[in-house]
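User: I've been trying to design a sequence by hand for this structure and keep getting stuck. Would you show me what you'd pick, starting by listing the structure so we're on the same page?

Assistant: Good idea, let's start from the same input. This is the structure you sent:
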């Protein structure tokens, strides 16, 4: 198992580099000027425009920007202090006077004894050695928190933007997954146990309808029914909030309609998968043996059928959780939820590439970790599934 986990983590590396490289390549062909979109319709002189491009590092080739971005993401850095001290340099500040292979800066003065603020040629600055540092000759090896950069549109740090928006997406995702598990698995069990009855037909028809509904249309419909029509019918005595995340209702109330909207289609798929898997395992020998031993139908269902039937369901729910944690752009937009999906959507429209890159990297890491956890969970659901060297013995 340990070898399998290590192997999967190693496989994350090419995926990470591939996704980030594609992102940078896409930005080179997208129309739109981030600097001009930042200032709106205000006219910029060529000199000011060039200065802003240089300040944001957009005047450099894409591969240079990519190398510097990867360097900023890494918690481990090295700097070479081989330059002549510039005027005004102190032990806590240095001037950047060049680079080695793009990502290793050459700073003025001698290696500092503590954290140092390096001022770049474009006037911006960054701090190295905030966590730890070790000096070896003219080189300084430091450890810093990953830097996702700053928003071009607002100037806010990307880490701060993600920290402000992602909790809303996480709450919405887990609320949707909870509904998906409860109603999807429950409906699938009822449909399989009551095969060819009214309940089976009801579940089958309901799931077919839910699968065919566009998410944004379902969200608007729920807003009208439970937020507008129900309020008018009850004279304001009972209704649900239709947008936002806070106000006159408690926080949980603002999750009801978005979570139902987000979970609707996936709940239908879970119910269908659960039904088909239960019907499939009913014909297995171990199920017939359990009935022959005199076990009750409920005991056979919960102790024998469910374990094997749940494996495909857990797979789907796990992958869906990764997708939901990536941000639900349509649902967050319809219900005005300031989540990471909506933040990414707005950043794309504004060509705010640092925010797009930062949100995408966080989403990528979350999806990869969730997929790994889902794969590991197979071994606990079915003892026949083993990873590593177990299959070779």
């Amino acid at each position: 198992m340990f070898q399998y986990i290590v192997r999967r983590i190693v496989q994350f590396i090419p995926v990470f580099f591939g996704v980030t490289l594609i992102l940078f390549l896409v930005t080179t062909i997208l129309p739109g000027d981030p600097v001009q979109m930042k200032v709106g319709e205000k006219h910029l002189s060529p000199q000011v425009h060039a200065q802003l491009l240089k300040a944001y590092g957009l005047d450099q080739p894409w591969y240079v920007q990519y190398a510097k971005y990867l360097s900023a993401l890494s918690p481990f850095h090295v700097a070479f202090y081989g330059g002549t001290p510039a005027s005004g340099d102190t032990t806590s500040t240095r001037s950047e006077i060049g680079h080695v292979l793009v990502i290793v800066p050459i700073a003025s003065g001698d290696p500092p004894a503590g954290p140092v603020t390096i001022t770049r040629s474009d006037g911006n600055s960054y701090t190295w050695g905030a966590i730890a540092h070790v000096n070896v000759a003219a080189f300084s090896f430091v450890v810093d928190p990953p830097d996702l950069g700053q928003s071009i549109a607002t100037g806010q740090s990307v880490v701060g933007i993600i920290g402000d928006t992602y909790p809303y997406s996480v709450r919405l995702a887990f609320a949707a997954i909870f509904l998906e598990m409860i109603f999807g698995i429950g409906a699938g069990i009822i449909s399989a146990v009551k095969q060819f009855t009214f309940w089976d037909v009801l579940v089958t028809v309901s799931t077919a309808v839910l699968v065919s509904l566009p998410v944004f249309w379902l969200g608007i419909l729920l807003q009208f029914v439970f937020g507008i029509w129900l309020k008018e019918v009850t004279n304001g005595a009972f209704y649900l909030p239709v947008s936002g995340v806070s106000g006159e209702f408690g926080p949980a109330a603002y999750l009801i309609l978005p979570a139902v909207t987000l979970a609707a289609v996936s709940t239908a798929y879970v119910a269908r998968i659960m039904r088909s898997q239960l019907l499939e395992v009913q014909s297995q020998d171990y199920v017939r043996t359990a009935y022959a031993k005199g076990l009750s139908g409920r005991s056979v269902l919960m102790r024998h059928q469910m374990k094997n039937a749940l494996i495909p369901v857990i797979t789907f729910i796990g992958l869906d959780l990764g997708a939901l944690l990536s941000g639900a752009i349509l649902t967050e937009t319809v219900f005005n939820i300031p989540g990471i999906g909506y933040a990414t959507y707005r950043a794309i429209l504004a060509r705010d590439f640092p925010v797009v890159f930062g949100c995408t990297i966080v989403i990528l890491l979350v999806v990869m970790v969730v997929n790994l956890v889902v794969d590991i969970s197979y071994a606990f659901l079915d003892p026949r599934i083993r990873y590593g060297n177990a299959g070779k013995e």
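That's my pick for every position. To get oriented when you compare it with your attempt: Residues 158-193 form the longest helix (36 residues). The longest strand covers residues 76-83.
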